[in-house]
Each structure stands twice: as structure tokens, then as C-alpha cells.
Amino acid sequence: MEPERQCPTxxxxxxxxxxxxxxxxxxxxxxxxxxxxxxxxxxxxxxLILFPMTGFVVRNYFELEKxxxxxxxxxxxxxxxxxxxxxxxxxxRTALSYSHNNPQYELRLAQALARVRDSEEAAxxxxxxxxxxxxxxxxxxxxxxxxxxLAARNHDPTDALLYYHGAIxxxxxxxxxxxxxxxRLELVEFLxxxxxxxxxxxxxxxxxxxxxxxxxxxxxxxxxxxxxxxxDDALKVFQRALSEDPxxxxxxxxxxxxxxxxxxxxxxxxFLTRAAQQNPxxxxxxxxRDAAQAxxxxxxxxxxxxxxxxxxxxxxxFNTAFTRLESCAAAKxxxxxxxxxxxxxxxxxxxxxxxxxxxxxxxxxxxxxLSRVMDVAxxxxxxxxxxxxxxxxxxxxxxxxxxxxxxARP
Length: 410
Fold this sequence. Notes:
Layout: E1 5-6, E2 13-14, H1 27-81, H2 85-98, H3 103-114, H4 120-136, H5 141-153, H6 157-168, H7 176-193, H8 197-208, H9 215-227, H10 231-244, H11 249-262, H12 265-278, H13 283-298, H14 307-332, H15 343-354, H16 360-365, H17 367-387, H18 393-402
Antiparallel strand pairs: 1-2
């Protein structure tokens, strides 16, 4: 029997009948094994070098795309500012092609599209972008405001109110208070445009309660309150503006108009006179000042007047109204000397019956006669205003007095 041999490589015993150690790999395999390890090591080293290079190239590529996108967006801003809408749209679209789904570029493209008038396609595309942005950020105040403007332009009050309120209570960059207030003022203008004055008044009251100490802004809100006949609230806003700037002419005129509409002609005259002194070109203010002065000069019911002065004013009021009655009837082709059912003819009969006693000597002694004379004068002015054009001068003063029971305030 052949003696057992020991493998010189691994030290194990070589089984009987075998010339090579079955436990050790062949020489060729050992050589390949060595080559494979070296190859894998080389690949690993190559990848270690390649990964940073690839990252560097990719970063550079994205930075280059970002730079291109910013350049095109800046071009779009310049074109939009110059009102080159077609060029601006192309610029923003190119910016988006370099920076996909960039919310800033989508918003600017939507705003540019919204400025394209008389194009339903542009408006629809703008709305699509804005709705996509709103889905990603529901509380975005600016996106809500742009959607509200589109809805207002499309005469859709339901969506307009929804998105305007989204803008009012949404999140804004920068001065949130000012931007929310601006959105509410836009809503007020929209409500006034669709004749929803009660809703507009409610929004204006909400604005007026939190206005900053800015006389120009306070005056603007006050004038809007005048439009919706919120005279008490408007007067408070004008008074706050005047406390900040006593010479704010628009606030003086606004306060005067508030007092005028409330029937307080003494205060109205005070403020309107101050406004007209600063700016005599304010036609409406000057007209109201003159009307307030005429009312105060004509009203026989003011306190601290002598009986003779009351009588003088009563005679003047009656004669003014009688002349207005005759001119109104002539304009309508009505013969006052003929009996008829027209209100002007009936008033003419009352006035001619009362005319002989409408003299200062009688009215000084008889306050009831003075009251009857004034009642007829008031009725003539009211009926004539309905039948003919709005009056002017003393006729307007009488008409306004007729709307204020008891005459103007002292």
C-alpha cells in the first residue's frame, strides 16, 4: 500500500489513489482568482473616482438649468412690465421648461395669462395653473386673490366671494395685514359693481375697525362707506383721519358730507367750508356747502330766531315753492288755471287760497299759519321734484328741509 502523503500547500492528507490534493484549487484557478480580485479592486477604485465626477457633472447641469430658468423668468418680468404679453408668455413658458413645476414660474405665467383680455383660452389656462397651485398650498393668499379676480372678470360672484375670502384670511409674504386689507378692498369694489351694497357695507365696517393711522387710507375707506350710505361709520373714519391730519381736505369734505346727509347742516357747513377754502375746485363740496348755507338761512324752525325772522323765512320759502310749481307745470304743459286731477293743479289751488295770508305781518303773530305755509311749500317741492327735474338753489334747500322733520338742526 502506498503511504499517505501530506499536501505541501494546505497540509492535509492526500487520499490514496490521488496525485493532487482535492482540497486545494488548481493553479490555473488560483491565477484567475488572483486576477478577478485585482479586477474587482480596479472597478471599485474607478467607481470611487466616477461617483464624485458624476455628481459634479449633474450638479453643474442642474445649476445651469436653474440659471437658464432664472434668466428667462427675468426676461418675462421685463416684458410683462413693458406690457409685451406675447413675449412674456413665451419667456415664462421657457423658464418652466427648464424648471418643471416651479411654483413661482407657474404663478407668474398664470398672472400673465390672466392679463390677456378677451381670450377664454388664456383665462382657462391661467385658472388651471392657479388651481394646481392652490391644491398644493390651499392657504396661499396671492393664489386665492388671482382666482378671485378671474372669477370677478367672468361675472361669477359665487367663486369670486369664495376666493376673495380665501385671500382675506390666507397667508401672505411680507405685511399680511396690508395685503389682506387690500384684498378686502378689492372685494368691496366688486360688491359695489354688482350692487350688493349691504355686503359691501359689512366688509367696509370690518376694514374700518382695524385701520392703521394712515389718513389717506382712512379717507379712502370713508368715501367707500359714503357710497353705501354708511354715514355714521364713515364719519368715525373721517374723524380718525382728521385727528392724524387736520388739514386732510378729502377727509374734511367727507366729514362734511356725512353731516349733510345726516341733516346736521351746522356741522356740515363747518367742515364743507374748511374743505372748500383749501380746494375751491371741489365742485360737489362747494355745492353742498352752498346748499347747507341756504338751508340754514331758510329754515324758520331753527332755535333762537325772532318771530319776525321766522315769518320772513316762511314768506321766502312759500314764494320760492310757488315759483317752482309754476315752472314745473309749464315744463309739463299743465294749465294750472284749469281744474284737473293732476297733483300740481291741486297744489296750485291750495297755494292760491293760502297766498293772501302768506305775509310777514300775519305769520309773525300766527305760528300755526306759519306751519301750514311751510307744509304747503314742502309738499310743492316734493311733488315738483317727482314730476320734474331735481331742483337747485333755494328749491333744493326746501326739498332737503322737507326730508328733515322739524327743519335743520340748530
